Amino acid sequence: MKQTEDVLSLSPFYLLFLSSFLLFLFFLSCSTLPLHCEPEESGTLLRVLGQGGTLTLAKFQSGEWSVIEHRDRVKIQSSRIVFTNVLYADGGIYELSCSKSDNKREERFQLEVVLAWEASVAKDETVLLPCYSETTGKNGLTVQWEKNGHPLCVNSPDGCTRKPGERLSVSRDWSTHGNLSLTVENVQPGDSGDYFCYVQDQHGKQSGNPAAVRLTVQVGNVSNTQFL
């Protein structure tokens, strides 16, 4: 079976960290910021700026949100703030504040930008999703791959331990070579999606480089690979 590395482009990914939730999307796509003020509360969505400054993006009163800044590309949909044209500069810290009488609750979340590969491969081929990390001199490491935010493959010296492990593999030398790349064999249309790579130790997990790959599986021949 032929292995292909049909990497088409290097594109910015957006990752939104909110408590234990992880949302992700491509540059110039749409991003939704979940908002959770109760109908009887008043609320504010702020962008936290440098030197203690803030920018008010939206306000919540009488059970409805209204956009204050960036009205040309920020919309309200089902009590959510939607960036219809995400910019690289949108990365940063945001703060949601909801209050009623003397009670006030605040929640901060961070929108981060990382670079990600975009890959395309024909059905039934084998594809290598690249990821690298510094592993020299570090003990107790594991490699984790996720697809669309869900655990897909955990790699220890014994190999991938989460189904469908029979088609997924990471080099057994990853801990010495720093090559965390994921090989997917006999690729099927259902394998299309966003893949994220992490290395984890006792202190937590850290994104590899590149941190993410968007895989598209095409039925039929894939056009010539080129960088966009």
Strand and helix layout:
Elements: E1 3-4, E2 7-18, E3 21-26, E4 31-34, E5 42-48, E6 54-61, E7 64-67, E8 74-77, E9 80-83, E10 92-100, E11 103-122, E12 126-129, E13 142-147, E14 150-156, E15 159-160, E16 168-170, H1 174-177, E17 182-184, E18 193-201, E19 204-218
Task: Write up what this structure looks like.
The strands form 3 sheets. Strands 2, 3, 5, 6, 7, 10, 11, 13, 14, 15, 18 and 19 form a 12-stranded mixed sheet that branches. The chain has a 4-stranded mixed sheet with strand order 1-12-17-16, with no helix packed on it. The protein is 2% helix and 57% strand. The model is unreliable at 1-30 and 223-228 (pLDDT under 50). The protein has one helix at residues 174-177; strands at residues 3-4, 7-18, 21-26, 31-34, 42-48, 54-61, 64-67, 74-77, 80-83, 92-100, 103-122, 126-129, 142-147, 150-156, 159-160, 168-170, 182-184, 193-201, 204-218. The chain folds into 2 domains: 3-13 and 114-218, Immunoglobulins (Immunoglobulin-like, Sandwich); 16-112, Sandwich (Immunoglobulin-like). The two termini are 28 Å apart. The chain is built from 1 helix and 19 strands. It is mostly beta strands. Strand 13 (142-147) and strand 14 (150-156) form a beta hairpin. Keywords: Membrane, Transmembrane, Transmembrane helix. This is Ig-like domain-containing protein. Residues 107-216 form the Ig-like domain.
